[in-house]
From TrEMBL:
Taxonomic lineage of the native organism: Eukaryota, Viridiplantae, Streptophyta, Embryophyta, Tracheophyta
Domain of life: Eukaryota
Taxonomic source organism: Cicer arietinum (Chickpea)
InterPro entries reported in the protein's UniProt record: DC-UbP/UBTD2_N, DC-UbP/UBTD2_N_sf, UBTD1/2
Biased composition regions of type Basic residues, renumbered to the chain: 16-25
Coiled-coil intervals: none
Ranges for domain DC-UbP/UBTD2 N-terminal: 16-116
Ranges where the record places region Disordered: 1-30
Protein name in the entry: Ubiquitin domain-containing protein 2
Gene from which the chain derives: LOC101492374
Length: 117
């Protein structure tokens, strides 16, 4: 199930809690509109790697978790059977071992986000 070092729960039996990614900076200042466009492009293309129905369904659940507040995101991840390797959701696995890598820009806003003109 997943890779070594990833699991649904910690050794003491508690579920690995997800968190927001640490603050990050985009290579150049970016507007909210540009950030939304990057996110849309990522979510539109990411599920097509492999194309199996199970992978597409998991990508859809990961997209929903990325947009949700932390408690709802935790519920989505837990119900989808996603194995969280990085608590900020940047690296996860499904129950079949397929890897899902999410860039920080789909999970949070950069510190250098600027207003649209």
């Amino acid at each position: 199930m997943g890779c070594a070092g990833s699991s649904h729960s910690k050794p003491d039996g508690t579920v690995k809690k997800i968190r927001k990614p640490k603050p990050w900076k985009h290579p150049q200042p970016i507007t909210k509109t540009q950030l939304i466009q990057l996110r849309d492009e990522f979510w539109d293309t990411a599920p097509h790697y492999g194309g199996r129905k199970g992978i597409i369904a998991t990508w859809e659940k990961m997209a929903a978790a990325a947009e949700a507040d932390l408690s709802l995101a935790q519920a989505i991840v837990d119900s989808a059977g996603v194995i969280v390797q990085s608590s900020d959701l940047t690296v996860c696995y499904d129950e079949r071992g397929a890897k899902y890598e999410l860039p920080k820009y789909v999970l949070s806003e950069p510190t250098n986000l600027i207003q649209d003109s």
